[in-house]
Amino acid sequence: MRVLVVEDEQLLADAVATGLRREAMAVDVVYDGAAALERIGVNDYDVVVLDRDLPLVHGDDVCRKIVELGMPTRVLMLTASGDVSDRVEGLEIGADDYLPKPFAFSELIARVRALGRRTSVPLPPVLERSGIKLDPNRREVFRDGKEVQLAPKEFAVLEVLMRSEGAVVSAEQLLEKAWDENTDPFTNVVRVTVMTLRRKLGEPPVIVTVPGSGYRI
């Protein structure tokens, strides 16, 4: 899952991004609304965690732009105000969910994951395919009933492949969904991660390489 965090309080923004990355999400961070619009115009995000009171371009206008463009991106709006009227207004603008500050980080994670499941064809919270069972909420993976310990990026790659439901996923798509924009697109990080993931999942291999196209399960 790829997430954009838009928050002008830099310490909070960086803390949220760090926590989401620990949950095997690819996260980009910006600190104002103008930068958010720039990123949205370049990258495809599953979820935008959007502070409402932003400098340069207000969060409401960022949300309106996402709706106007007809993007499948889901918006979790943050605000220091917990008034019901503010929450209603935010949802009417086009936000998919609303979370007042201060918030429990576990709740933020749960809401981001719930929104991420709604960006494409609805899928069950626990993914199962080819003897593999992946639970994004618990960060657990089992193969044939045996738990498999994965690093965050390995987990993220496996989740993207599982969510594709048998379709081929290119290396570029994996790079986009599992790594942030600071990753060099010319590195072999995807190939190395897939090799390690195959080894950890054991025999017989379940990740198939489609020459010239990518990978699938």
Automatic annotation (TrEMBL):
Q: Any idea which UniProt keywords this protein has? A: DNA-binding, Phosphoprotein, Transcription, Transcription regulation, Two-component regulatory system
Stretches assigned to the OmpR/PhoB-type domain: 124-217
Could you mention a single GO BP entry for this protein? regulation of DNA-templated transcription
Tell me the domain of life: Bacteria
Indicate where the modification 4-aspartylphosphate is found in the sequence.
Answer: D51
* Gene Ontology MF annotations: phosphorelay response regulator activity; transcription cis-regulatory region binding
Any single GO CC term annotated in Swiss-Prot or TrEMBL for this entry = cytosol
UniProt cross-references to InterPro entries, sorted A to Z? CheY-like_superfamily, OmpR/PhoB-type_DNA-bd, Sig_transdc_resp-reg_receiver, WalR-like, WH-like_DNA-bd_sf
DNA-binding region located at which positions? 124-217
- Which residues does the UniProt record annotate as the domain Response regulatory? 2-116
The record, for SMART domains, names:
REC (SM00448), Trans_reg_C (SM00862)
The portions of this protein that span the membrane are none
> What role does it play?
Member of the two-component regulatory system CutS/CutR, involved in the regulation of copper metabolism. CutR suppresses a defective melC1 gene, encoding a putative copper-transfer gene, probably by altering copper metabolism.
Q: What is this protein called?
A: Transcriptional regulatory protein CutR
